[in-house]
């Protein structure tokens, strides 16, 4: 393998400068601004501000709506992660068994990842629309009255399906790559020893997929907590009755609609700490079960 050697120390930093600048301007600086604003009480235009210490955080703990958003986010994140990874793994295993039609099948499954989250939300909104949607019509035939505008459970199902559908393609690509990296000789040896398809999957294939599964677990939890804002905004807008008001959407609603900048900043800080804590826990404890 060829190794690149830089004669001076300036060139490596110049090559890193664009990425460092993007990280500083769009990630580090906004994070520090959010932390600063979380200790202030500001007007809608940011002209006048008052230092209030931990008052914004104490108000969150006393808010029934915010505590509800914590519960909704937990249910939503777990549901999206399990559904998107589970379906993607099943599709990847199916592709891994195919030989002649593997490439066209893979191409068709990857297409949804190119769809913007807002477009995905609108697409599923029309599919589940109680008036013109095809799925409510089919559900009505079997006696189920679907209406995500009034029913909390229906609304949660809608946003989970819309969010998971968008992420399945991403998970699918990594699972296919992981399956193809597993030596075929291991599964062939197990088959010769009499192990059936199910046992070969759980005893050989899935354990060897653990690095890929661990990586996707981290990515999908972050996706569910941050990148699903557009899906929520284009489908339910947090309703009905706060049933789909996840934390990232509440940050937007309180800050941009309610103009409560201090509370919105405090919520974003709490959300950031939760995601960081979950990531640390996964790397600290879950990774121990990963077989590299």
Short synopsis of the structure:
It is a multi-pass membrane protein. Keywords: Cell inner membrane, Cell membrane, Membrane, Transmembrane, Transmembrane helix, Transport. By secondary structure, the chain is mainly alpha-helical.
Tell me what the structure shows:
It is a single chain. The chain is mainly alpha-helical and 292 residues long. The protein has one domain (64-291): MetI-like fold (Orthogonal Bundle), CATH 1.10.3720. The protein is built from 13 helices and 2 strands. It has a two-stranded antiparallel ribbon. It is globular, with a radius of gyration of 23 Å. Part of the ABC transporter complex UgpBAEC involved in sn-glycerol-3-phosphate (G3P) import. Probably responsible for the translocation of the substrate across the membrane. InterPro entries: MetI-like (IPR000515), MetI-like_sf (IPR035906), UgpAE/MalFG_permease (IPR050809).
DSSP strand count: 2
Poorly predicted ranges: none
CATH homolog superfamily: MetI-like
**SSE string, helix = H, strand = E?**
HEEHHHHHHHHHHHH
Average pLDDT, rounded to a whole number, is: 88
Quote the CATH topology: MetI-like fold
Please give the CATH class: Mainly Alpha
Q: What kind of sheet is the major sheet?
A: 2 strands, antiparallel
Tell me the fraction of residues in β-strands, as a range.
Answer: under 5%
Lay out the secondary structure.
Layout (H helix, E strand, L loop, with lengths): L9 H28 L2 E3 L6 E3 L3 H7 L2 H33 L5 H9 L6 H11 L6 H8 L10 H29 L3 H9 L4 H12 L1 H18 L1 H7 L11 H11 L3 H24 L8
Antiparallel strand pairs: 1-2
Helix pairs in contact: 1-13, 2-13, 3-7, 3-10, 5-7, 5-11, 7-10, 8-9, 10-13, 12-13
Family: Belongs to the binding-protein-dependent transport system permease family.
Subunit structure: The complex is composed of two ATP-binding proteins (UgpC), two transmembrane proteins (UgpA and UgpE) and a solute-binding protein (UgpB).
Pfam families: BPD_transp_1
